[in-house]
Design brief:
It comes from Mycolicibacterium chubuense (strain NBB4) (Mycobacterium chubuense). With 105 residues, the chain is mostly helical. The chain has one domain (25-105). The chain is 43% helix and 10% strand. It has three helices and three strands. It has a three-stranded antiparallel sheet, with no helix packed on it. Helix 1 (29-49) packs antiparallel against helix 2.
C-alpha cells in the first residue's frame, strides 16, 4: 500500500480529494514516530472523553502533536527557518496522563 497522494511541492497530501498539510519531512524518523504515537494517544483520549470537561484538554493534546509535526501552526513549516522548524518538533508534547495539567484520568 502506498501512502496518500502528495502535491508536487510536497507541502500537502490529498485524501479523498481534500488537501491536508503534510508532515514536515525534516523531522528525524525517531522523533516523527514519537510524535505520531502521541498524536494517536491523544486522538484516543478525545474519543474516550467525548462530551466531558476533559475533552478540551484532549483536543489541546491533538493540537500540540499536530503542531509539532508541522501539520498545523503558522507559519507553515516550509516558510520557517531551519532553527524554527527544529525548535517546533523538539518542543515538549505531553502524553495523556502526564502531570502537566492535561491529565484526564
Amino acid at each position: 500500500m502506498s501512502g496518500p497522494e502528495v502535491t508536487d511541492d510536497g507541502h500537502h497530501i490529498v485524501v479523498d480529494g481534500r488537501k491536508w498539510r503534510a508532515t514536515d519531512p525534516s523531522i528525524p524518523d525517531d522523533r516523527r514516530a514519537e510524535l505520531v504515537r502521541l498524536l494517536m494517544a491523544w486522538r484516543r483520549e478525545v474519543r474516550r472523553t467525548k462530551g466531558t470537561p476533559a475533552e478540551s484538554a484532549a483536543r489541546a493534546g491533538v493540537q500540540a502533536a499536530k503542531t509539532a509535526l508541522g501539520e498545523r501552526g503558522s507559519p507553515p513549516w516550509w516558510e520557517q527557518t531551519e532553527t524554527a522548524r527544529r525548535d517546533r518538533w523538539q518542543a515538549h508534547v505531553p502524553a495523556p496522563g502526564d502531570d502537566d495539567g492535561r491529565s484526564a484520568h
